[in-house]
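[agent] plan:
  1. take the single chain provided in the ticket
  2. run structure prediction with default settings
  3. attach structure tokens to the ticket
  4. add a short note for the reviewer (M.T.)
[agent] executing step 1
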Amino acid sequence: MEKIVITGMGTVNPLGLSVNESWKNVIDGVSGVGPITQFDTTGWNVQIACELKGFDPANYMDAKEARRRDRFEQIAVAASKEAIAQSGLQITDSNRARIGVVVSSAIGGLKSLQDAIQTILSEGPRRVSPFLIPMLMPNGASGLIAIDFDIQGPSMSVASACASGADGIGMAWMMLRAGIIDAAVTGGTESTICTTGISAFDRIGAMSRRNDDYSMTPAPFDKNRDGLVMGEGAGVLVLERESSARARGANILAELAGYASTADAYHVTAPDANGVGGAAAIRNALTTAGVNLDEVGYVSAHGTGTQLNDASETKALKGAFGDQAYKLAISSTKSMTGHMMGATGALEAIFCAQAIREGVLPPTIHYQTPDPECDLDYIPNQAREKKVDVAISNAFGFGGHNAVLVVRRY
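[agent] step 2 finished; step 3 output follows
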């Protein structure tokens, strides 16, 4: 089976507006958490988030187009521009039908929908924007990327909650392996820091309320973790069939060697406490990649900072790796970026490729008190220099979705 390789990467997220800036900050252990600025949180249980800093859509598209696009679409286009530029992929009449776009979102344009409902209630239905539907539909980002770059192959979005970005990359990987396309622009994007998003996630008990001392949250795998912090951003990869990339002399960054997806079939929000579905996804992904357990040098954990997720993921890793789990180097970069929902798996896949390329593993910051239920090596607080050839990225989502990507040195 032909190898599928990564030739470009792009991101905008709470740690930076490029891969290089984001990578520097994640290795330095910079926290993206701060007070919410997008709306007044006075009296709210949750007043903190990991917001984008300094993002101006005018740097990536004209002002008229920006006004017609939800923020989750704007940032997807921004990340795609960086990824395509790095890849050097020239999109022409001869290849545009052989390139796909799979950029996923778990929720889509939530802020646009929220604003439209407020408009209906205050001004009536005739005042709703005619651009509302393309602004809120989860496949809007993929469609706009295809339009902006005139890409005419398959274009779609995968919605599997917080596994959406990873599953979207996996879908592109499968199409490439099947020979349906030769290249893909793929990843995830999300922007749900709005009154509806924050209040809804708070009501299900998922979010940290450390508003006065947010310097120590989120705290994945720490005994005193109290929930996730919502983030926003996009991560995009350019994937290609090895033969196509080599034929055009592309700089190959890493290999996307494997992918698998499973379902817990347990609960609509809570993970299976035993981590059985996650363990199966890990094992299946490694099998598709032809990778042995002892070859895995780094695990980018889902690591949300909630009590249930972190304990379940620890059991999943033990279920998949057995005693080898205690030799793994594991970290949750959500301790710095926050939880970017459908985008998070894509960004963490980028961090896996960077870890392999740079020989440095990101830390889990805010880690202070060990939890007996979470007793593995979570790379606490300081980045670690280590040469690794294989890294895996876990992305687990509401509904029991488990997606795992395997990244390997090329």
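[agent] step 4 note for reviewer: The chain has two domains: 4-247, 258-408.
[agent] ticket updated
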